[in-house]
Amino acid sequence: MMPVYLSTAGSLTGKRVYMMRGFTLIELMVTIAVLAIISTIAVPAWQGFIARQEVASTTETLTSALNYARSTAVTRGLQVSVCPLSNDGSRCEATTEWNNGWAVVLGSPADALSSFSSNKVEVLREHASGALVQSGTNSISFDDQGAASNTTRLLICGTATSAAHRQLELSVIGRLAPEAYGNGGMSCG
C-alpha cells in the first residue's frame, strides 16, 4: 500500500494514512450482473451467427464444386458428374442426401457409381458439420456444352436454427442460382 500524507493547517508534520484499493462487494456484484446480462444476449446471437456461417460455407463449397464440374465438362469436352459420397467417402452413392460430401467424376452418373476410383477428378468431403444438404436427384451431370442433365434444386439446411436455410436451383442450361427457400416443395423439416 502506498502511504498518503495529510497535513493539517499550520503543522509541518503530517499524519500517515493508508488508503485501501480494490472493489467493494457491491461493485463486484454489479459487474457480475452486467456480465451475466450481456452473456445471455450475446451467446444465442453468436450461435445463430455460427449456424448461418456454416450454411453459407457449405453453399459456397457446393456451388464451387458444381461450377468446377461444369467448367471441366466444357474444357475437356466430356460428360462430368457430381455425386454424393458414401459415409466413408470411398464411392459415390445413389442417394438424395449429400451430407457426407460430394465428388466431381468424369463420365455419367452410372460411371460415377461403378468406377469411382478411376474417374474421380476431385473429392470435396469437407463441408461445415452444422449444415445438411438435400437434392432433388442423386447426381448432377453436365455435358460437353455445360448443360445440366436436368433442372434440380439443392437445399442446404442449418442444423442449429431454422433461419439458416438456403436453396439453389440448377437450370438445364447449367446456371446455378439462389432461390427462395421452400420453392419446389423441398423443406428442411
UniProtKB/TrEMBL annotation:
Organism: Cobetia crustatorum
Gene3D superfamilies, per the entry: minor pseudopilin epsh domain
Membership in a protein family: Belongs to the GSP H family.
Keyword Transmembrane tagged: yes
Membrane topology annotation: Single-pass membrane protein
GO biological process: protein secretion by the type II secretion system
Bilayer-spanning residue ranges: 25-46
Keywords from the named record: Cell inner membrane, Cell membrane, Membrane, Methylation, Transmembrane, Transmembrane helix
Descriptive protein name: Type II secretion system protein H
Record bears the keyword Coiled coil: no
Main location: membrane
Domain General secretion pathway GspH, first and last residues per copy: 59-171
Annotated GO CC locations: plasma membrane; type II protein secretion system complex
SUPFAM superfamilies attached to this UniProt entry: Pili subunits (SSF54523)
Compartmental location: Cell inner membrane
Domain of life: Bacteria
